[in-house]
Structures
1.
Amino acid sequence: MTGPEGGVTGAEGGVTGPEVAADRPVGATGAGGPDILDCRGQRCPLPVINLARRVPHLPVGAVVRVLADDPAAANDIPAWCRMRGQEYLGATETDGAPAFDVRIVS
């Protein structure tokens, strides 16, 4: 069940984090494409905070696609990548939402 911030509602009703594509493991980037971090409906700074929380669980070389409809994400995600030494791959659109691709380099 999806919580108010786009996270998954746990058994006790608490939001546990952004929704993850359930059909592949975290960090999988093979034929299935990038790991998806769905932050639609979240406002600054939540998309960047959730990206920062996801990165430690991803292997070097993995690509994470952040879906974020907050206009600030277009500036915040590339800036976060520069500050944290990750590779910003660019913006696209997925399912009608702005999407920002980040490659994990460290």
2.
Amino acid sequence: MPRMRSDDGSGAAGTLILVGGVLALSSVFFSAAAVFIELDRAQSLTDTAALEAADAASGRIAGYPCDRVERLAKKNNYSLHSCTISHLISRVTLGVTVLGIEVEIRAKAGPQNLRR
């Protein structure tokens, strides 16, 4: 008569599989959260840079608009892709690397009655 196999130890194997799955999903979740946080930070910095450029173009603050943007980008380890000023409207594009992928972030700022 053949011997029946025992279920001894199957609980430990199931627990290991469950814990491994939870760790894997947590890793994916936290990586995605880090990407969204970095992109939000980059958008905030690009908005700030565009506002500084518009203020410098209008004379509210001293300095050359795109020089101020470049300094702000370098200070935060971003790359300046473009900075244009037209009729007191500033358009800024910064590059940020997230998980090895370069992403462009854009912002525009200027007087309310001129922005379109």
3.
Amino acid sequence: MRTSPATRGAYRATVAVLGAAVVALGVVLLPLPGPGWLIIFAGLALLATEFAWAQRLLGFARERVAAWTRWLGRQSWPVRGAVAAGCALVVVLALGAVVAVTGVPAFLPEPVAALVADVVPGSER
């Protein structure tokens, strides 16, 4: 399909749309607990199969993640703990925002739902 001139454009367009959708999904999932960055890298890898700019961006992102990992590995335990606490705070704030917008999830047990409703401003059961 990639070698036929008639279908090459359609193939590239399909890769572009799917890759962009995967990257967009990863961006939406970034503040939530889960594999947001992994999904973004998967979308970039998909785009990189057809686009040189995506190959360069994926290479740059990999280098930055590796540099961050090396930097964090050289830091003391208090700095690592502060980074972990900061990440946990971002996750808690993101979940609080989701609950404030959508309400307390129905699957939570009643005592937990009551606690969440009391803690998160604007949330309802």
4.
Amino acid sequence: MVLESILSSPHTLRSSSFRKQFTKNEFGSWSTLFQRHRYLLSALTLLAILCTVYLYFAITLGEASDPCFGLNGPQKASCHVEYLKAEARGKLKNLRHF
């Protein structure tokens, strides 16, 4: 309601506050776009670097905690099966105590 009255007012439309503050040539250049969004681009760059470092350490350190780390092929598969069996037995023992 209030917005409609402001937009429909002829005096308000001629006001200099609603005019664009940049020229057509200024809007299209990459340097102007970079200058206007320098803080946002810097924050996104920092975020990308931090995410990359986090993923690097999550992947490299995450593999070492695997009980079957270093095994390949059928040995790794049988190791996982044995690990799951042992884990299931441990859960069953915990359930019997209740």
